[in-house]
Amino acid sequence: MADKLKLDKSEQMYQRSLELIPGAVLGIRRPYNFVPGEYPIFFESAKGGRVTDVDGNEYIDLLCAYGPIIIGHREEEIDNAVIEQIQNRGFCFSLTQPTQNILAEKLNELIPCSEKSVFVKTGSDATSAAVRIARAYTGRDKIIRCGYHGWHDWCVEVKGGVPKSVYEDTHEVEYNDLDQLEDLYKSIGDQVACMIITPLGHPLANKVEYPKEGYLEGVKKLAEKYGAVLIFDEIRTGFRVNLGGAQKEFGVTPDMAVFGKAMANGYPIGAVTGKKEIMDVLIDKAFLSSTFFPNSTEQIAALKTIEILERENVIDKIKERGNRVTKRVEKLIADSGIPAEYSGDPWMPFITFIQDENKLYRKLRTEFYTQLIRRKVFLQPFHHGYIAYRHTEEDLNIVVNSIGESLDEIKKLL
Question: Which helix (H) or strand (E) holds 110?
Answer without folding.
Answer: helix 99-110
